[in-house]
């Protein structure tokens, strides 16, 4: 069902970053569901994590271990969330075994989990597989890792970028997973990005947070913020050194943002049951927060999402969703709505020249833009979302069966 | 698809309140889609209206005409919302014709519309029908009116109550419509309640606002606040006089609240595509606003709603939704979750004695309670909601076709 999304053909290896994958039958047997990323000594790691108050055990552990991190251990099929103290102990045990296999200290391994909430990890199957992961490491393992971390995803997600730093090439490669419970809040489901550049941890952290705002923090599938969201950036220190004072820093941040946005859009394109990829472009706001509030209110409206599924230009639902957004002193008089280049509403009223067939033609496409101008300022924000289909209901009604 | 809801058998007439209905083929021919309520001279009318910033034309007009109101004119099939100045003029024209038919001034008639947004009212078909409404008035017209105001409703909704005021009987009867775009904000879709008691307008207004908080403002189907929500209370002045200083005032407000809550729950029972009626009982909150925020976050979670549709006790989704609610300094440690009498989570962890089969048995029922204790205070709030089914998607994908 993914909208204009296919598996990445090639993902550029990043010197100093090696992946291993293995099957552990965590939810179902027969496919890789463990992935391990080993970074060269001296690498720096930054991360942003879910703001869900009930963050899962692995999130708490990973967040505390950023400073000396050397390895990232990921499992799909089970989120290890809502599992209390036993779940916390399970995550620690996984890290200990991974550390032993890699010759590291346990607190140099960061755990990540994604999948069903509220069930214990099957350590009896996972531990033997983790013990063997150290033998499988490869710099060309990115695509296999992208597959191993999938849950309801239908397509593995990854992308690469290169940046020239004073004539030297720096590589960025990232992978991501996620297609439901997607409304990242300062983070996303799971995304892992590495670069061979040499970057201090604090600088890498700043670059990652800047990139998030216009990528993973600008998407929503269903408004449900996961307990396990995490987006990690790793700099292996094998290529050119970079810092915010360098002329090329903006180029690097732009490439990181661009890469993260491609991964974030891939998550929406592969949203559970999605048949449409919709860009919500809100402008004319007093500030960006206001623009984002309107964009997310529309993105979360079940009535707008079902109209998009139907390809029905029922713009009244868009107007109604905009009208209930938390915007103070909001008047309809300045509002304009357009679907791609079809202007529908101007000054709060349907335009005389609006023909429904034009809007229906836009909404028959697999992807298009809903542009909303609030007519009260200069701030703007863009959010990407998907439609609400029978298939979304089926996937989430049958998820555990 | 309505959950444990059937048409009211009998609705008690209210002296001084007469309904007329008629077919005007507003959306489809062959059934009544106009309803007119005429009140005796001296009646008082109070109303609460949508807080959607883009309130429809009839809402603006009705809100301004409460003081001298004598008649309420309702149409289904078209919301007359997003129609700009022409839509405003259309609503005024309908009121003028109703006033002429009843021998009233135009500004004594309040218009109400519900249905599709963004289309002009078909005045050519409506006006002739309105002109004849004055001949059809009857005190026994409540059920016919309940049918005439339906849109995607499958069951007409109405209820009656009586209160003894110093040995004299006061009657309250109300009707409501609504099954989608339901997340009332200080009002509801459309509800009309009348009593034969004699009550000053300001007192009636206070009673109505108090009743709303625990009825229509405590339900949600899909989080989409309508542009046309209105709940009206009329006191015809034909029976005992009542004021807040009277001993029986609390009895009257309790009966009004109870009646409004029955109508509000009827809206949720008849929610678009609903197969479950779910009571969200949130307790242990620091204040009621916090309890409501958690209840509505869970009520709006597509993942919780699809799990309810599936009858799947995937309580991790409940926990994840609670965790993303806008509650400051929120810790999982004190949280408890139960489905009816099946305790699942205590102190933020799954209970050792929890058996999934017990929770599955609760969720197999057509209605049950999800109880969430936040463990940080004494405040509580109850919200009623429905599940998210294939049928919800079908109804809203096909609504205009």
TrEMBL record, chains A, B:
Enzyme Commission numbers on file: 2.3.1.35, 2.3.1.1
Gene Ontology BP terms: L-arginine biosynthetic process; ornithine biosynthetic process
Active site: 188
Annotated site residue numbers, Cleavage: 187-188
Chief site of localization: cytoplasm
Binding site for substrate: 151, 177, 188, 272, 396, 401
Family matches, as InterPro entries: Arg_biosynth_ArgJ, ArgJ-like_dom_sf, ArgJ_beta_C
GO cellular component, as recorded: cytoplasm
Record pathway: Amino-acid biosynthesis; L-arginine biosynthesis; L-ornithine and N-acetyl-L-glutamate from L-glutamate and N(2)-acetyl-L-ornithine (cyclic): step 1/1; Amino-acid biosynthesis; L-arginine biosynthesis; N(2)-acetyl-L-ornithine from L-glutamate: step 1/4
Family the UniProt entry places it in: Belongs to the ArgJ family.
Function of the protein: Catalyzes two activities which are involved in the cyclic version of arginine biosynthesis: the synthesis of N-acetylglutamate from glutamate and acetyl-CoA as the acetyl donor, and of ornithine by transacetylation between N(2)-acetylornithine and glutamate.
PANTHER family associated with the record: ARGININE BIOSYNTHESIS BIFUNCTIONAL PROTEIN ARGJ (PTHR23100), ARGININE BIOSYNTHESIS BIFUNCTIONAL PROTEIN ARGJ, MITOCHONDRIAL (PTHR23100:SF0)
This protein's name: Arginine biosynthesis bifunctional protein ArgJ
